[in-house]
Amino acid sequence: MTQDVFAGGGDVGRDLTVVEWGGTSLGPPEQWPQSLRTAVSILLSSRFPMWMAWGPQLTFFCNDAYRRDTLGRKYPWALGRPANEVWAEIWDDIGPRIEGVLATGQATWDEGLLLFLERSGYREETYHTFSYSPLRDDEGALVGMLCVVSEDTERVIGQRRMATLRDLGSDPSVVRTEQQTLAFTGAQLGRNLRDLPFTLTYLFDLDGVRLAEATGMPADHPVASPAGWPVEAVARGESVVVPLDGDLPAGDWHEPPTEALLVPLLQQGDSPYGFLVAGLNRFRALDDGYRGFVELTAGHVSAGIASARSYQAQQRRAEELAELDRAKTAFFSNISHEFRTPLTLIMGPLEELLTRADLTDEPAVRAELDVIHRNGLRLGKLVNALLDFSRLEAGRMQARFEPVDLANATAELASVFRSAIERTGLTLEVDTPALAQPVYLDRGMWEKIVLNLLSNALKFTFSGGVRIAVREEAGTATVTVTDTGVGVPADEMPRLFERFHRIENARSRSNEGSGIGLALVRELVELHGGTITADSTYGQGTTFTVRLPVGAGHLPAEAVTTARVTAPVSSGADPYVQEALRWTPGTAEPAGDPVPRAKSPATVLVADDNADMRDYLTRLLHSAGHQVHAVGDGQAALEAARARHPDLIVSDVMMPRLDGLELVAALRADPRTAGTPVLLLSARAGQEASIEGLEAGADDYLVKPFSSAELLARVRANVELARLRNHHARWRTALIDSLQEAFFVCDEDGAVIEINSTFTDILGFGVEGLPYPPVHPWWPDREADPKGYQQVADALAMLVGRTRGAYTIPVQHRDGHRLWAAASFNQVADPDSGRKVIVGTFRDVTAEHYAVQRDSALTALSVRLSQAESLSGALPGVLTQLGELWQADQVYAAVFAGSGPPALVSADDQVRWDTLAAEHRTALTELRDKPLLTPVADEPGRAGITLEHPDGTMALMLELAERRPFTEQDRTLLALLAGHLGQGLHRIHQIDQQRETALALQRAILGPAQLPAGFAVRYAPATRPLKVGGDWYDTVTLTGGRIGIVVGDCVGHGLEAATVMGQLRSACRALLLQNTDPAQTLTALDRFAAQLPGAMCATVFCGVLDPASGDLTYASAGHPPAVVTHADGATDLLDQGRSRPLGVRSAGERPEAHYTVPARATLLLYTDGLVERRRQPLTTGIRQVAAAVQQGRSTALEELATEVMDSMAPAAGYDDDVAMLLYRQPGPLEYEFAAEATRLAPLRAMLRTWLARCGIDPTTAQNVLVATGEACANAIEHGHRHRPGGRISLRAAATAENLHLTITDSGLWKTPQPAANPHRGRGFALMRALMSEVTVTTGAAGTVVGLQARIPR
Amino acid sequence: MSTPLTCTTGRHPDGAVVLTATGEIDMSNAAAFAAALNGAGDESAGATFVVDLTRVEYIDSAGLAALFPHVDRLRLISNPLLSPVLTIAGLDDITTAAPES
């Protein structure tokens, strides 16, 4: 027996067997009640931490899990001890809770409660989430409590530390001074006075050690002096633990720290900045977690100092740079006009050199000279264009118009471009018929107009050709340049001629260009008094049309000359042609030998559309020892960056396909390249341009022209910075990985793009699978668990839709098991990209979730059980509930009562044992032989358990929805519920038995076996829970034909109340016989009640009725008033003669009242169960019952009794027991006499008297007398003519409106035969005539005549 | 013991024979009542005679049956109590109500 109780309890079970139970208040286990044994079985079989206390001393039990998690060194000492001894140190906290549970039966719930346990040799700060539920003994009394607990210490403390680390990292401003940084970290540390009761931050400086920040204590506290600490050790970078004593600040605790931890504030590659002193929480051991937390905290402080110091250095540098920039701007604006001079001096000698055969024969030299020449020309062209423009702006452009043969001049210019155009595979068509008259032109300007238009056409045309045509009509000369190029988008057309406007993303041969070509053309055309228009179809080509008026009338006279100079095409065309030639294919990338010189060689990607620049950069970087890869546009650069992971990208801003800024944006958007540094090169000087570049995410910006030394220096700085940044990124990753909560970052679409190692620990999904776009792989399966899937989908909608929030969702581990995660998230802007991201953390709350689920399941089960009215009624509801809890397809319970087939119950109540599938029958039968209360889930999709049913062993089996796993939590819950169910079934069984006994007893002792005539009585036990009570009614026949009437109600329910009732009833009966006086009887009963425990406060109505007169003397001891309903429907309440309930001391004698019950009135006595309803005054119930009697005042009394009981019953049945007594005045007349004619006169006399009592008028009375006489005469004459000695009985009863008479004989009535017996036939006719209804029923045993007469009002 | 009934025969001031019944008439004494009726019939020698039922508290069909043979030369004096029965029996046309006393 003993072993049974502790079986399945593991180590604890074994240790429990050796406890000296005899010495405890529970006694030896053999004597324990079933309820205790069940509770202990549940406790021991659960893998969830639990303990319980039972009995007067609250004897302590616990299971393996509790021992492991919570009990510590108190094991095994604690087993069998009083709980207040086991948990003496926290009894002030938990004692009142336990008392509350035992007093009220209400379970408690505490989440994360702080308790100071002494289980590890010191007082320890611990947190617990637990519920105390009541435990009941076999009688249902509260005798103990069960605690289901999960220890939260790690979680609470981890969260607290996390919060501090998170706050330390949450500095909203970018950088700040060292002082501000320390103040900020101090403020954060000061918010966690539990882990850091005090901190002191010291910095090393030139003067030695100084206190920089203190939290939790004033800076002038004696301990704060640097002298007291082992500075040398921390200066070497070691952490030191220092014991403390004396009067110290205690932080959030009531006792100060006994130890401090000194941690150096480490500096990258240098001696520490200083050190942090952390006063330690004395209620926690300095374990790895605690030490790690303090070290991470110090790391934050160090990082803050490093950041502040580096910011100050950068600040200084930025100020120096700004000063430099200002000087440079002034310088350039001053010297721009000086460009031309040195250019001239470059180009002149250069062209000289190019003519020297001795030099140009050397191909290498020739190539270098060509490069110089080309770029010199280009520079000159740009400078000229700028100068032109500034002149135009200033109005200083001097035009000189002369008559020109437009066709000829234009054709000549076009021919210069022919070779460049044809080398690209395009055609050039020149259609310039001679015009009738010359056009006044400035030749230099015209040249620029035509060359710009042709150059433009070539640049944007990739197939087809260019056509130039000249026409004249109606005094206007027209020149058109038409190409079959890319065309201009319609929305760009209005801005085509705006200066510096360039069409973005247009496909072109080169992205070089200043954006001033067309603007200049327009200015020049307008200077000629002409117009220029453009007509373009995007993707098909563009036509520029220049219209010039013929003649000179429209031109200022002073600018017109008539001299005709036929000058050839000037050298001004050269730069255009040279430039165009460089766009043509076939320019190879030169590659020299590597000359490694850089200290830290890097791989550099160069992107520039200008081949010369590309070559130059390649050579330069190569010469510095870097590995270089060069590409011609931004798109190629992006592809190369993704493939090659260069250390640095050097890119031009202006490039075809993808420009520099777009390249940077694309790089930053891709996690693979987001960290690659980019150095932008641009010819666009000025602060706006550089800001634009940096804002796009470029790391550095260099303006052309630049010196090779500057470029190399910037390249080196950026490479080193990138390497440093990677170091920071690694540190950040390490920090995030150290979090005890799972960490994730989502993009705006909900795709998870970053996670930490805890994330992987909890969910099983690692960084290798990133990014995880929704639907995430840890979502519950949509088919198998649509509810869970929806929950997660809702959570995702919240995650991407709100700025912050929290949710708890079911998720699936990679290996398939189910978890519950509580997550919280915040939307933030990614500091790198500026885009919205969602940063979230979550933790595994599976245990808590199941604890809550368990609690609610237990509650639901208890409710089901308490609602059950019987043992057989309890199971289907319970099975349905279990089925819903596990989403089971079917739940079966088989009760094996004996050798025969078991009784089977299923949730849907459809299946019987013999119709059950054989497979299920086998499974249930096998289950029967398993140990009690031990869950079995060997087969997938099926789980079962056995428990004790009052009729035998019950096997409970769940058919789970397809492939649903049955987890450890499910097992614990099933065991717990099965234990509860077993107890509950036993309780119902006991209640059933008690109720049956009590009801039998109640019926046995209730009321007289023979009621006097005219009475009807009812008794009903309470329906839910089925209970008999202490209500009774009684009638006592007294002297002089009087009748004592008693209705009473003892306090309480059950067998006990029924017993008291029986005694009170007998006493009252005896007293009435003796006193025949209601008030005296009640007074005597008071004395009796004082002797009888449980009789106090019983209420009694006691009356003595004279049925002859209807006189009623009555007294009421606190009983609800009797109700009298008159024949005409009027109602009286017998509310006089009132005094207090039995045994309640009263000042005077009990009063007595008199009442005369009118003829045919109905008297109703009852107990409060008939009329008392919740949330309704008693008077309402009394009114209702009075109405019910009024309604039925013409109904026979027995039927009326049934009607009243039925109509007053609440829908769910009476919740209190009810006794009811009805009497109608006068009682019925019942008379039996010998079937002899001489007996008729006395019969009539008796009937006449009774009719008078009924208040019947003389005419009606005479009619009744005659009809009754005829019926009796018939009975005598016919029924008994041949059988003398027979008897006849008469019964007469009155209702409010009718008289009912029944004449019964034992003879054989003859059918009326008027011919044979004329006067007998007349008798029958008389009956019919006088009565409202006559019935004759003849049978073998005799004849019954029923007469009914309506009573006139 | 029979139901109490007394029958006395006398003469009305106008000379008619009067049979005065007092008590109740039911099957137990209907024969006596019939005999008294026959006596009164004989005495009136074919002339109409009077039966005074004023002091009869009850009469049933047996009593009525005794009256029917004489119905052609009979007059009844009745009280309100008996009138419903007499009316039903079709004797109301020979019945007069007793003067209020």
What would you say this structure looks like, in words?
The complex is a heterodimer of chains A (1353) and B (101). Chain A has 35 helices and 47 strands. In chain A, helix 26 runs antiparallel to helix 28 and helix 33 packs antiparallel against helix 34 (1258-1279). Chain A starts with a helix and ends with a strand. Chain A is an alpha+beta fold and 1353 residues long. Chain A has eight domains: 2-151, PAS domain (Beta-Lactamase, 2-Layer Sandwich), CATH 3.30.450; 164-315, Beta-Lactamase (2-Layer Sandwich); 350-453 and 460-508 and 519-583, Histidine kinase-like ATPase, C-terminal domain (Heat Shock Protein 90, 2-Layer Sandwich), CATH 3.30.565; 603-733, Rossmann fold; 739-844, Beta-Lactamase (2-Layer Sandwich); 872-980, Beta-Lactamase; 1006-1224, PPM-type phosphatase domain (Phosphatase 2c, domain 1); 1229-1350, Histidine kinase-like ATPase, C-terminal domain (Heat Shock Protein 90). In chain A, strands 33, 34, 35, 36, 39 and 40 form a six-stranded mixed sheet that branches. Chain A is 40% helix and 24% strand. Chain B has 101 residues and is an alpha/beta fold. Chain B has a single domain (5-97), classed as 2-Layer Sandwich (Transcription Regulator spoIIAA). Helices cover 28% and strands 35% of the residues of chain B. In chain B, strands 1-2-3-4-5 form a five-stranded mixed sheet. In chain B, helix 1 runs parallel beside helix 2. The mean pLDDT of chain B is 86. Chain A binds chain B through residues 1237-1238, 1240-1241, 1244, 1258-1259, 1262-1263, 1265-1266, 1269-1270, 1273, 1276-1277, 1318-1320, 1322-1323, 1325-1326, 1329-1330, and chain B through 1-4, 24, 26-28, 58-62, 64-65, 68, 80-82, 84-85, 88-89.
